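Below is a filled-in request sheet from our internal design queue. Each sheet records the structural input a requester submitted and the sequence that came back. We keep these sheets so that new team members can see what a complete request looks like end to end.

REQUESTER: design group, bay 2
PRIORITY: normal
MODE: inverse folding
CHAIN LENGTH: 400
BACKBONE (tokenized):
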């Protein structure tokens, strides 16, 4: 579950960046159908991006701590166990509760819509399946079905034309596709805002279709104002009324956006690329637990040994590690961080100090690791695929 939650957070970040770009740059353009396609396709891409492995060249392994005791006695410290991820369980509970709440709201809305559909008179008008309702105050379309009030059908034919445009443009598919996104990412406020914008795009496109049918724009706008009062809203339906009436009328008066503005969408690519790169650091591969077994000290000095993990390598380092007397007398202690590379054949090279404590301690840590590196090879796990691996190797000098 923890992996899934991390996936949701990462994909939610990408979706948030994409939606923010759309809301800031493209929401007022007249590319209604293109905007719909880009919104849905961009959402799908953002959900797939976390599955891509972008940066896999370097791998960092942090091993158990090493200690050099006063008097020359050396021993391997126990590996630091990973702390339990206590955040995962409560986060999963909150996430699932939110998903259930949104799903319940969708079901309740669908049940209300189903009751209205069942209570009306069914007909086929202009080759469109239609339900004529005496109780529905707000006409809407659900799938390929149009629900219209009897009074609207008789007195305001533009209302029926508007709903036909919703069905013809297949706006119901957008809502069906976007609903699972809304359930999964209910915690992202930009998802809710973008769903409202998607519905508004549907209204823009339907309004454009109605005016294209020859209905006079001014009369249609007056009809919108008269029909602006009502409270029927269905999550999976496209309705005639919409809360952002001013935006719809302004869009009807818009002369149209220059087609060259379409290229503005390309600006989101570097934004998402930066986010993907930032969210994909080098793979972290934890070393196995230390192996509790006897180590033959003679073999260290006589032959090249292929040790099976970094923890076992640390045991050999401890055998040759000495606490510098001058640093011991001065009470100097601390953690020296070394790094080295391991080739596919297990040979160790490029050993260096990346964070020192004191020249004497740094030199001793470097000497001990270098001496073992000449005689030992590391057996890398198969999952490292024969690539050169970068290790961070901490050596702790601690006085008792």
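RETURNED SEQUENCE:
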């Amino acid at each position: 579950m923890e992996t899934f939650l991390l996936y949701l957070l990462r994909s939610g970040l990408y979706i948030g960046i994409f939606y923010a770009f759309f809301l800031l740059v493209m929401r007022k353009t007249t590319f209604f159908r293109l905007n719909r396609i880009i919104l849905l396709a961009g959402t799908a891409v953002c959900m797939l991006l976390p599955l891509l492995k972008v940066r896999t060249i370097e791998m960092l392994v942090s091993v158990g701590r090493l200690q050099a005791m006063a008097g020359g006695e050396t021993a391997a410290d126990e590996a630091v166990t990973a702390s339990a991820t206590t955040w995962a369980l409560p986060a999963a509970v909150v996430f699932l509760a939110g998903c259930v709440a949104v799903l319940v709201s969708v079901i309740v809305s669908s049940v209300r819509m189903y009751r209205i559909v069942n209570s009306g008179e069914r007909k086929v008008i202009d080759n469109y399946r239609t339900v004529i309702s005496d109780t529905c105050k707000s006409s809407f379309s659900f799938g390929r079905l149009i629900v219209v009030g009897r009074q609207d059908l008789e007195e305001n034919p533009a209302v029926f034309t508007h709903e036909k445009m919703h069905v013809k443009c297949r706006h119901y598919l957008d809502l069906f596709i976007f609903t699972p996104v809304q359930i999964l990412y209910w915690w992202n406020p930009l998802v809710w805002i973008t769903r409202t914008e998607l519905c508004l795009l549907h209204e823009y496109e339907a309004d454009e279709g109605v005016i294209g049918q020859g209905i006079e724009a001014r009369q249609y706008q007056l009809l919108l104002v008269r029909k602006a009062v009502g409270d029927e809203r269905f999550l999976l339906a496209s309705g005639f009324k919409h809360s952002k009436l001013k935006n719809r009328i302004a869009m009807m008066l818009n002369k149209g956006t220059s087609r060259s503005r379409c290229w503005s969408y390309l600006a989101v690519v570097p934004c998402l690329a930066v986010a993907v790169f930032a969210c994909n650091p080098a793979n972290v591969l934890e070393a196995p637990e230390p192996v509790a077994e006897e180590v033959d000290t003679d073999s260290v000095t006589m032959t090249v040994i292929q040790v099976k993990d970094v923890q076992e390598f640390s045991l050999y380092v401890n055998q040759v590690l000495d606490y510098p007397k001058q640093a011991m007398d001065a009470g100097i202690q601390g953690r020296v961080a070394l790094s080295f590379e391991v080739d596919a054949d297990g040979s160790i090279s490029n050993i260096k100090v990346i964070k020192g404590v004191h020249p004497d301690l740094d030199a001793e840590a470097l000497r001990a690791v270098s001496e073992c590196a000449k005689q030992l090879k590391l057996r890398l796990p198969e999952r490292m695929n024969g690539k050169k691996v970068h290790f961070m190797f901490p050596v702790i000098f601690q006085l008792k």
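SHEET NOTES:
- DSSP finds 14 helices and 14 strands in the chain.
- The longest strand covers residues 334-342.
FILED BY: M.R.
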